[in-house]
Structures are given as C-alpha cells and as structure tokens.
Write a structure and sequence with these properties.
mainly alpha, Serine Threonine Protein Phosphatase 5, Tetratricopeptide repeat, two-stranded antiparallel sheet
C-alpha cells in the first residue's frame, strides 16, 4: 500500500493540474468569467482575442464536447495563433484527459484516455514541433495513469499484466524524453543565456530542466510500479527495481535542491525496501525527513515516516518507540486538508500498529502505559475506519482483535411524533447533521471509482441510509410545523421551514421545495431566513427548468421570474438577491432573447451588479455584430453595434474610480473597437485613455504575464492612433510619435521565439482589420487612411529590424495597395503601384535579415507581384509555398488567379495555354502531380464542405470565366459553349449559387457568354419562390 502512495499522490496532483478549473458553469456564467465572446463564435479571435485562453476556459468549465468541436473548426477562425493550429492534436489530447478525469464511469474514463493517447501519438508524428517534449511527457503520464487504474482494488492477473505493459511503455516514453532534453540542455549550456536580456529563452531553459527532472523521476517510478505487478516484486521485478534506483540516485545525489530531487529520495527508499535493502532504505527515509518542511514535500514526509515505521516494526523485537515518537509528532501536525489523504490515513494506521506493538511489551512497560497505548491505538483505528479504503478494512480487523465490532451499521433515530415544534426542529437538526456525515462518507467511497462488488454494496447501503435519514427529517418537520400554538416562536418556525425546504431540495422534490421556500420568503420578508428560503425556491425552479422541455416551461419561467423579482425588490441591497435577477438574465441570454435580457438588466437596481451585466451585454452584442457582418447583413450588424456601444457605455459608467478589474478593462477595450468600427476614432482614443477604465491609461493594472491582453491593447491603440491621423484638426506629428511608441510597446510585450509567433498573429489580425475597414470606408476616408498608414509604415520600415514588425509592414502595404486600386484595374498604377513596390522592397529587407519568413507573409509577397502584373514572380513564390504546404487554399486560389490574369496579358498564341493551366493546374512537383491545382481541383475539393462554400462558388465562377476567355481568345465557339454549360450545370444543382451577390455575377457572365456565342440571351432561370 505505502509503495503506491507517492504515485497516487503525484498522480492526483497531475490530474488536478489537468483539470485547471472547478465545476460546470452555465454558458453565460462562463462568459462572465471570460469577459468576452459567445461560445460558438469565431469573431473574438478575429480581433486578436487569445484562442488558446478561450480553449483553456472551455475545458476549465467542463465543456469538453464544445472544446473538441471548437478544435475541429479551428482552421476556420481568423487570427488564431499558427502555433495553436499546429498543435490541435495535442490540445485534443489535453481535452480528452480532462474529460477522462471528470468522467463518471470507468468505461468512459478509459475511452477518453485511449483517445488522448491516440491524439498524442498523432501529434508526435511531427517531431520538429517545439511542444514535442511537453507531448511526450504528457504521453508518459497518461500511460502511468492508465496503468494505475488497472492496479486499483484487487486486480486479477490479466489486469496486472496489462498494467505492467503500460508502466514499461511509460518508462520507454520517459527515457526518450530524457535523451531529447539532455541534448537540448547541453546545446543551451554553451549559449550563456542572460535571463535579463533574453527572459523567454531563460524561461524555456528552466522549463526544459524541470521537464528533464520530472521525466527522470517518472522513468524510475514507472519501473518501480511495474515491479509491483509481480507476486514477488523483489525477485521477479529485480531488474526493473535496479534500473529505477539508477534514476532515483542520480536525482537524489545531484538534484536534491529541487522538489523533484527531494521526492526521488523517498522513491529511492521505497525501491530499496522492495529489494530487501533495509538499512539503505532506512537511510533514504531518514534523509527524506531531513528535507525542509515545504508544502510540496508534506505527503512525502508522511510516506517516509510510514516506511520507517514499517521497517522498525518488522524487526524482532519491534522497535515501536522511535516509530511512535516520529509518527505521533507528524500526526499532531496534520493540517485539516491533509487528515483524510491516503498518505495521512496510512501513517495513522502504521502509528496505531506501533501503539499496539507497545501493548504487547508487558516486560518493559507498566500497566498504565500499556492501557494508554491501547487507547491511543484504538482511537486512531476508529478514526481511520470511518473513511473507505484498504486502510479501513485493515483497521476494522485490528479493532475486531481488540473486541470492537464495527460491522453493524449505525442505528438510525426512530421516527416518533414530536411533542412540539421546538422538539421537531431539534430532532430534524440532528438528522440533518447525520445526513451530512453519511453524504461525506458516500462521496469519499464514490470517488474511488471501482467496479468492486463489495464497494458497490457499501455505496447502496450508504445511499439508502442517507435517503432514509433525509426522509425521516422531512417527516419530522412536516409534523412539527403543524404544531403551531398561539405563542409559537416564529423564528423557530421559519428556521424549521428553511430546513424543510433544503431537505426537500436534497431529495429531489423540487416543486415542493419551491413552494415551501417561496412561502417562507413571502412570510418573512426582509429577514435573512426569508432570503434563504427564496434562494432555495429559485434553485429548485432552475432544476425543474433543466428537466422540462423548453416548449413546456412557460409556467416555470413565469414562476422563476416572479420569485426573482420578489427577491430583488424585497432585498434590494443584498448581492444574493441581485444574483437572482442575474439568473433570469442568463436564461434570456442563453435563448438569445436580447430584448428580454436588456429589459431585465434595466429593472435591476443601479449598482455594480447591474453595471457588470451591462458590460457583458455590450460585449456579447459586439460579438453578434461581427457574426452579422460575416453573414453580410450590414444593417443588422450596424444596429447591433449601436446597441453594444450603448450597453458598454452604461456599464463602464458604473465603475467606481480606482476599483477597476480585468473584466472592466476588457469591456473598455471592446468599446474602443466598437467606436473604431463606427468610424469615431476620437471616442475610441478617449476610451483607451479614460481615467477610470481606460486600458491604455491603466495598463499597469494588467498582469504582465497576460501577453495576449496587453498585446491586444497596444494593437488597438496603434490602429486607433493611425486612424486618428486621418481626422481633421488632429496633430499628425504628435500622433505619429505616439504611434511609434505604441508600436514599440507592442513589440516589447512579446519576447522570445514563442512571443514572436504571437506578435505575428496579432499583426495578421491588424492587417485583416485594416482590410475590412478599407472595404467599408467612404472614399475620402479611405484616401486619408491609406496616406496615414503609408507615412507611418515608411518611418517604421526605415528604423525597424524586428522580423515580426517587418512582416506586418509587408502585409499592410499589400492591403493598402490593393485598396488603392479600383475594381476595374487589371494592374496597379500610381499610388497603388508605389505601395505594392514598397511592400516588395520591405520583404527583401526582411529576408536579408531573417530568411525564415512565414508562409502567410510569402503569400502576401505573391499577391503583391500579381497585383503589379509580375505574374511569373508571383507564381514562383506560390510554387515554393505550395511545395511546403499544398493544402494552403488561399495560395491555391491566388495561383489560379495569377494564371488567369497572366493569360489576359499574353499574346493570342500563348494565352490558351495559360487559361488551361488556370483551369487544370500546373508546375508538377517531385511526385509528378501538379503543385498548383487550378480552378477545377479547387472546386472539386471544396464541394460539399460548408466552411469552404464561398471558395467553391468562386472556383465554379472562374472555371466558366477562364473557359469563356480562352474560347474568345482562340475564337472557338465550342469552348465558349462549354463555359455556358459550366454555369447551367452548377445552377441545376445549386440554384442559389452561393447567395445574391454571387448569383448576380454568374448571371452577368452567362449573359455575356450567350451574347458572344450568338444565342438568345436569357441569363439564369428565375429562382423558385420560397415555400
């Protein structure tokens, strides 16, 4: 038993660390903690919100299915950090593990762990990924956990064999990690890393070292635990134990200044004890106890003391004195949260054995000492026996030897008629307390998660006793509340009603609990017990809502609304009552009933609670506006934007100066983005700089470790300032200076290789935001915006050598250059040409300093070449990109577009070949397959995939367009007729043709083709009226 305790303890810590959160929250309650988007929207990340943080919070809230679905669609969301996209398999593994930890059945848990292991194995196929060490460590831990579950509760030979195989697999995994990290650490050793100059690299080195030490400890653990699967571990598992000792000795001798090294001392002692090396094990256990009494080593100290006690008691005669001295001192020092841990209970059991050994020493001990020893041992055993587990069984046997029978269940109080209300209340309180003790025992036994029949019977017995106790208390109170005399104590009556409501809730009689609790609230208004009754009623109605179908819960909703309104009106200043109104608001938000939610928020009394809901509403409405814009419903998007601005303004006004928290700063940042979208850069800047809630003004309140939020603040500040430069009456020089400072702050927010990746991701989001802004800005505003960015970017490009910044400049210049072109321009000219040529020059400057340029920036270079009419250069870049990543769909579309545009510039004799290549692809790769797919293959591979529907219809349009242009240049009507068929065939299958705008393009092209080939011009068939 003791040999497994350290692993159980460390394994539990591992599982707890994987949970990263508490119990399930309602969707909107989780949104409150996030302070940002709705669960299923991508828009938050398009604005630079941290997708990784969002994913962690999904898991922390227990939304594992949602997290997995989100990961499956991750590549559809703009602005997501590429490093996260590359680690989807690892993030899925993390999700499966946390789901397994929270699973209620052994079958579900095992399946989740199997899925997790498969996901990690999939991730490890890319052995160049920087998170490979983390994944391998996770895989090894997972293999340990799976083996450990097989060894719980009297495993048979088959389970022991399976567990042994899993432990050995884990050992091999950890061995590979050790060798990999040893090489990395050796490389870093020669680099003389300065933590002040390169904190990220120094942090990475520390992480590698910590992972290295943990891998060594786990490698030894896996072997030691594999040996325990044999009937005679010391003999049959000798080789495994000796290999384990090598790892433990290395850690204990060379790294005892680390927690991992100190724990290794304990494991060394346990392994030596299994090999029969008693004196060496004693030395190791004593050495463990000489370590500092630090929190991470507390359980190890308990286990080491147990190990010492067992060795001392195995001697002849037993050396109980040092065991009692050591053990009692440690038991006396147990903290409340430690008293029920397996290690503490095992220590108490071993200490009890030491006291019982003392009782048998009749030669050297006096009778009073023997009696005291028996009493001490008996008290420890009785205390241990209350808690389920192997120690409980052993303590029961020892108590039986002392003549104490613990097998008979405690007799429940009899249900007798009370004399009066006071007696009924007193009896019910006793029963309630007994019920709580039974509930705790049931919970502890249930947590063991075993299919053992005896445990199942124990659980059934405990559950029956618990229910009997509760129903007995309910019946006692039911009788008592009918015995109300003329001089009855109303305080006692109300307390009894409260207990009555709580007990009804506990046994699942929610309707009765709602009635009793609601009655108490109305008969005792303004009192503490009345509020408690109302809250029980509210909770009961919520439970009923979860059970009743939505189309049948109208009456329940009205009852819940009535109770909530009564609580908020009767206890207007009580935060618990305000929370009642919050439940109604969350219910409305879950149903997307925005008007109802706004009405409920408006009914709340003015104060912090109402302001927080207004801020939440504002952020959710902002997210909804982005969804509407993505769906090309601009009218709705603008309406939602206005509603968002109104709610955020009210919510932020409710913040008291000096009391701002992270949630308020998030809301203020969203308000600044709202103003930017509305074109009001002056208000956006004023919001960022606001004395009470401005995130730029109060940047010192933002945790320095929260790089994502800090980066989003500085990125928004930068965008706002540059837009402000386009406004009349502004000071361009001052704003240019501040923009340069904001850029510098943004760069400094991220350091190291990982930081550069995050910075690049933010820059991509900024470029995307600029592109969207340029699409919707009026011509006059667009002209000024282009000029402002051009001036700013030119200054930055002249002075910056930062790779991420230069990459952003390249992307932004391409966006600006494209925006400066009119829709009819074939090639860029004038200012657009100047901007695009500058982007190419900046790219060359970037490559000269750092050849490792992301594919996204290479893609922008290819677009710049294509817009400049440099088609071969564009295709050369795209070919390089697609050889590395053939499935980069944007690049495939750009390549087909380049061939199509190039064909229009070529002489007639060469043009048909170029159009053919645009349709069918070109540039064969090493596998003899076309590296560039062409419109045909793009159409084929995107057909039927909803997330790529826009690309599919665009590809179908260009198939017809390229074929028509080819036939017209070749003066071949048969080719142009095929272009007509291209359109009519896809129309027959998909009459909507991707929506109103895309359908209009198809119709216009079809009419042009029909006119060219000399047939009646009819265009597309009219759409059938909607049913």
């Amino acid at each position: 038993m003791v040999a497994m305790l350290v692993f159980y303890s460390r394994n539990r810590l591992f599982l707890n660390s994987l949970r990263r959160g508490g119990g399930r929250l309602t969707i909107v309650a989780m949104l409150l903690s996030l302070g940002l988007s709705s669960l299923f929207s991508s828009q938050a990340f398009a604005q630079g919100e941290p997708a990784e943080d969002f994913l962690k919070r999904l898991r922390a809230a227990g939304y594992f299915d949602t997290a997995l679905a989100y990961l499956d669609r991750l590549d559809q969301y703009p602005g997501v950090d590429p490093s996260l996209k590359d680690a989807v398999a690892l993030e899925k593994a993390q999700t499966y593990i946390e789901a397994g930890v929270n699973a209620r059945s052994a079958t579900d848990r095992d399946q989740f762990f199997v899925d997790a292991e498969s996901a990690i194995a999939e991730f490890l196929k890319n052995d160049s990924h920087p998170r490979v060490p983390e994944a391998r460590l996770q895989l090894g831990k997972l293999q340990l956990v799976r083996a450990n579950t097989l060894m719980m509760l009297n495993p048979d030979d088959a389970k022991k064999t399976a567990a042994r195989e899993s432990y050995i697999s884990a050992a091999k995994t950890f061995d590979a990690i050790i060798e990999n990290l040893r090489g990395k650490l050796k490389e870093m050793q020669g680099e003389k890393i300065n933590a002040d100059e390169n904190p990220k690299l120094a942090e990475q080195r520390s992480q590698y070292r910590a992972d290295f030490l943990e891998a060594k400890l786990n490698a030894g653990d896996a072997r030691r635990l594999a040996a325990t699967t044999y009937a005679d571990p010391g003999k049959e598992g000798k080789t495994l134990l000796e290999e384990a000792i090598v790892h433990f000795k290395d850690l204990a001798d060379n790294y005892d200044g680390y927690v991992t090294g100190a724990i290794a001392i304990l494991h060394l002692g346990q392994t030596q004890k299994m090999l029969g090396q008693t004196e060496a094990a004693l030395d190791s256990f004593l050495r463990m106890l000489e370590q500092p009494d630090a929190d991470p080593l507390r359980e190890s100290r308990f286990i080491a003391t147990s190990g010492l006690t067992q060795i001392w008691l195995e001697k002849s005669p037993p050396e109980y004195a040092p065991a009692i001295e050591r053990g009692q001192g440690l038991v006396d020092s147990l903290r409340p949260n430690e008293r029920r841990t397996p290690a503490a209970l095992q220590l108490k059991l071993d200490l009890a054995k030491a006291y019982l050994a003392k009782t048998k020493d009749t030669k050297d001990q006096k009778k009073p000492d023997l009696k005291r020893a028996e009493t001490s041992g008996r008290q420890l055993l009785i205390e241990i026996e209350k808690f389920p587990g192997e120690h409980a069984e052993e303590s029961a046997k020892l108590l039986a030897e002392l003549g104490i029978d613990t097998s008979s269940p405690a007799e429940l109080p009899k249900a007798e008629d009370p004399e009066n209300l006071e007696e009924a209340f007193a009896s019910a309180r006793e029963l309630f307390q007994l019920g709580e003790e039974l509930r705790q025992a049931f919970t502890l036994l249930a947590e063991q998660k075993s299919d053992d029949p005896d445990r199942k019977k124990q659980l059934e017995d405990l559950e029956k006793q618990l229910n009997d106790t509760r129903y007995l208390a309910i019946e006692t109170l039911r009788r008592g509340v009918t015995m109300i005399g003329r001089g009855a104590d109303h305080e006692t009556l109300n307390q009894a009603k409260h207990f009555y409501a709580v007990l009804l809730y506990q046994v699942g009689h929610y309707r009765d609990a709602a009635v009793v609790g609601g009655s108490l609230a109305r008969t005792a208004p303004g009192t503490d017990v009345g509020l408690k009754g109302g809250l029980v009623a509210l909770s009961s109605l919520q439970k009923l809502l979860a059970e009743v179908p939505q189309d049948q819960n109208v009456n329940l909703v009205s009852q819940l609304t009535a109770v909530g309104d009564f609580l908020t009106k009767t206890w207007p200043d009580d935060p618990q009552a305000a929370a009642a109104q919050g439940i109604l608001i969350r219910l409305a938000l879950q149903k997307d009933e925005w008007d109802q939610a706004k009405t409920l928020v408006a009914k709340m009394p003015a104060g912090p609670e109402r302001a927080s809901f207004e801020r939440l509403m504002g952020q959710l409405l902002w997210n909804q506006s982005i969804l509407a814009r993505q769906a090309k419903n601009d009218d709705l998007a603008n309406q939602l934007l206005g509603d968002s601005q109104a709610e955020l303004t009210k919510g932020l006004a409710g913040i008291t100066a000096g009391l701002i928290e992270a949630e308020g700063l998030h809301a203020a940042l969203v308000l600044a983005k709202v103003y930017l979208r509305q074109g009001d850069d002056a208000k956006a800047l004023a919001t960022l700089d606001h004395e009470t809630y401005g995130p730029v003004k109060l940047i010192a309140k933002v945790d320095e470790k929260d790089e994502a939020f800090r980066g989003d603040i500085f990125a928004t500040e930068l965008t706002t300032i540059v837009q402000r430069m386009t406004s009349d009456g502004s000071d361009p020089d001052a704003l240019l200076k501040r923009a340069t400072g904001a850029m510098d702050k943004l760069r400094k927010s991220y350091s190291g290789e990982e930081g550069q990746k995050r910075l690049t991701s933010i820059y991509i989001s900024m470029a995307q935001s600029l592109k969207e802004e340029l699409k919707t800005a009026p011509d006059a505003k667009k002209e000024k915006l282009i000029d402002a960015f051009r001036i700013f970017l030119s200054q930055i490009a002249e002075t910056s050598k930062d790779p991420a910044t230069l990459q952003w400049i390249v992307q932004t210049l391409v966006q600006l250059g494209e925006a400066a072109m009119s829709p009819t321009d074939g090639k860029a000219s004038g200012r657009a040409k100047e901007l695009l040529e500058t982007s190419v020059t900046t790219y060359q400057q970037l490559v000269a300093q750092n050849p490792d340029v992301s594919l996204a920036v290479q893609f922008q270079l290819a677009r710049a070449h294509r817009l400049l009419g440099q088609y071969k250069d564009s295709l050369d870049v795209l070919e390089k990109i697609l050889l590395e990543k053939p499935t980069m769909l944007d690049a495939q579309v750009e390549a087909a577009t380049a061939y199509e545009k190039w064909a229009g510039d070529l002489p007639d004799k060469f043009a048909p070949r170029a159009y053919q290549t645009a349709l069918n692809g070109g540039r064969p790769g090493p596998n003899k397959q076309n590296t560039i797919w062409g419109w045909g293959k793009i159409s084929k591979l995107t057909n039927g995939k909803e997330q790529f529907s826009e690309i599919f219809y665009d590809a179908r349009y260009h198939i017809a367009l390229s074929r028509f242009l080819w036939g017209r240049r070749a003066k071949d009507n048969s080719i142009m007729k095929r272009a007509e068929t291209d359109i009519t065939q896809v129309e027959g299958i998909y009459p909507e043709l991707g929506g109103k705008e895309q359908r209009a393009k198809f119709d216009s092209l079809l009419r042009q083709i029909q006119k060219e080939i000399g047939v009646t011009v009819t265009g597309l068939s009219p759409l059938a009226p909607a049913s």
